[in-house]
């Protein structure tokens, strides 16, 4: 694949935009009293990697890591850009110029595999939140959050396409 500056820029902007859309959604949920991911815990998990620790019985009980909140936010946005790169790799640069909803929503929903199969088990919550007090509710929240991310991929690409005309 021949990556151009346009390719990289569009992918990064779409990923950042979609992640910001998800953050707005999470902020709304927080205002409504719904618990959402504490990005410091994400940073704590990633912060233990250089020490060779990838799995935790409970990430909340793991030793704090210096700068974990900033590291969590950085990881969150880097993941959003990486997922946007998957979308663009699958559907091409042309999709970024004339975006459609279904590919973005499909990729957004597929990204729920990351928390279900990687993050939650590694942080002590089990596969697809199976070790949490309310697994079904937590799975539904994850699906909704990632659907919003998918919608954010589409809306960010649509805005970028409109601006670049």
Automatic annotation (TrEMBL):
<feature type="transmembrane region" description="Helical">
    <location>
        <begin position="74"/>
        <end position="93"/>
    </location>
</feature>
<feature type="transmembrane region" description="Helical">
    <location>
        <begin position="100"/>
        <end position="123"/>
    </location>
</feature>
<keyword id="KW-1133">Transmembrane helix</keyword>
<keyword id="KW-0472">Membrane</keyword>
<dbReference type="InterPro" id="IPR021329">
    <property type="entry name" value="DUF2938"/>
</dbReference>
<dbReference type="Pfam" id="PF11158">
    <property type="entry name" value="DUF2938"/>
</dbReference>
<feature type="transmembrane region" description="Helical">
    <location>
        <begin position="143"/>
        <end position="163"/>
    </location>
</feature>
<keyword id="KW-0812">Transmembrane</keyword>
<protein>
    <submittedName>
        <fullName>DUF2938 domain-containing protein</fullName>
    </submittedName>
</protein>
<feature type="transmembrane region" description="Helical">
    <location>
        <begin position="12"/>
        <end position="34"/>
    </location>
</feature>
């Amino acid at each position: 694949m021949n990556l151009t500056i346009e390719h990289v820029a569009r992918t990064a902007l779409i990923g950042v935009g979609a992640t910001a859309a998800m953050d707005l959604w999470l902020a709304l949920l927080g205002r409504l009293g719904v618990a959402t991911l504490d990005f410091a815990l994400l940073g704590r998990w990633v912060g233990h990697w250089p020490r060779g620790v990838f799995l935790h019985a409970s990430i909340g009980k793991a030793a704090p890591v210096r700068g974990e909140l900033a590291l969590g936010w950085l990881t969150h946005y880097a993941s959003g850009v990486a997922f946007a790169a998957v979308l663009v790799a699958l559907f091409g640069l042309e999709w970024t110029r004339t975006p459609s909803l279904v590919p973005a929503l499909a990729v957004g929903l597929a990204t729920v595999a990351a928390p279900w199969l990687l993050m939650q088990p590694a942080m002590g919550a089990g596969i697809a939140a199976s070790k949490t007090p309310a697994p079904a509710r937590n799975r539904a929240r994850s699906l909704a959050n990632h659907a919003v991310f998918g919608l954010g991929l589409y809306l960010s690409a649509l805005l970028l396409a409109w601006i670049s005309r």
